[in-house]
Write a structure and sequence with these properties.
The chain has 310 residues and is an alpha/beta fold. It contains 9 helices and 13 strands.
Length: 310
């Protein structure tokens, strides 16, 4: 029996992780009561006694939690952005390579990827690392997300009766082009320059579609749509949660909430000889947050990575 401490169960990600784990027979999942969740002594005891702690906290609180750990055997998964480009932490996207999966399995510190970043990296990292496009390619990415990704305050705002009519429309944000996921996107893909990242929050609960358009004339290696689809299918062939649909399975309309409630991610590839559209569709609360944390936990514990995940 493994002891798993969720620090920050009250948030959307923490609640989903708890719901996924509470029925497990192989883990004892626990958290602090409302009156003790800010008690430093109580948190320190939990962080040092658990086999794995999952931090679902704001960045500063996550750093404070890590500073409380004294037990050299204690292992941590951090769902915040605090440690995603820290060289002493392993970035928790196991599908990137066999080497990355092995590092997660043995790691003491794993940073859980951001939701938008998961979609972007799953597309761009294979392209760059395989030399299909150069590290200096001028990437642009568009991302559509359900409002749950913005946290409890946004959820309440969207679900309040008589809300502002502007919430009926998709809303573009991060207009200063400095979204908090950009550092991990650049770092994990080995890019020379930041991509232009264009996210939208929309009036549905969960689900995400991250789209990266590619000009074939700027490719270092020339691939058409079919060849690129075959490349991605082979790249992710051994993975449980990332799939590449055939041309016949590409719908006329991509729905960002297609995989809501799952830990799955699909990479759709379409377009023509001049321009190729690559889109990753997944659940911002699943593979983009709580599902990814549970998957990383399973790998770290050496159990079936699919446990508690669909």
């Amino acid at each position: 029996m493994y002891n798993v401490f969720i620090d920050g169960k009250e948030g959307t990600t923490g609640l989903q992780i708890y719901d996924r784990l509470k029925v497990r027979k192989d883990v004892n999942v626990f958290h602090l009561s409302d009156e003790k969740r800010k008690d430093v002594k109580a948190r320190k005891e939990c962080l040092n006694s658990a086999d794995i702690s999952i931090l679902c906290l704001p960045d500063d609180a996550a750093r404070e939690a890590v500073a409380l750990v004294e037990n050299p055997s204690a292992r941590i998964i951090d769902a915040s952005t605090a440690h995603r480009v820290n060289k002493d932490w392993v970035y928790g996207l196991p599908e990137l390579s066999d080497e990355r999966r092995a590092k997660i399995a043995s790691a003491k510190r794993v940073s859980n990827p951001g939701c938008h970043a998961t979609g972007f990296i799953s597309i761009v990292a294979p392209l760059v690392k395989s030399g299909i496009v150069g590290a200096d390619y001028p990437f642009v990415a568009h991302s559509i997300s359900g409002y749950s990704g913005a946290g409890k305050k946004a959820i309440a705002q969207y679900e309040t009766e008589g809300r502002d009519k502007l919430l009926d429309s998709p809303r573009e944000y991060a207009l200063g082009l400095a979204h908090k996921h950009l550092p991990e996107m650049v770092n994990e893909c080995g890019l020379k320059y930041k991509p232009i990242f264009n996210p939208f929050i929309c009036d549905y609960y969960c689900g995400m579609c991250v789209t990266v358009p590619v000009y074939t004339r700027f490719m270092a290696q020339k691939y058409d749509v079919k060849a690129l689809r075959e490349f991605f299918a082979e790249y992710y062939a051994k993975q449980n949660f990332i799939k590449v649909p055939d041309e016949s399975d590409i719908p006329a309309f991509l729905a960002a909430n297609e995989l809501a409630g799952t830990n799955n991610l699909k990479i759709y590839i379409s377009g023509n000889d001049e321009q190729i559209l690559i889109a990753s569709v997944f659940d911002n609360l699943g593979k983009g947050a709580s599902g990814a944390a549970v998957q990383n936990m399973n790998i770290m514990l050496g159990v079936d990575e699919k446990l508690s995940l669909i």
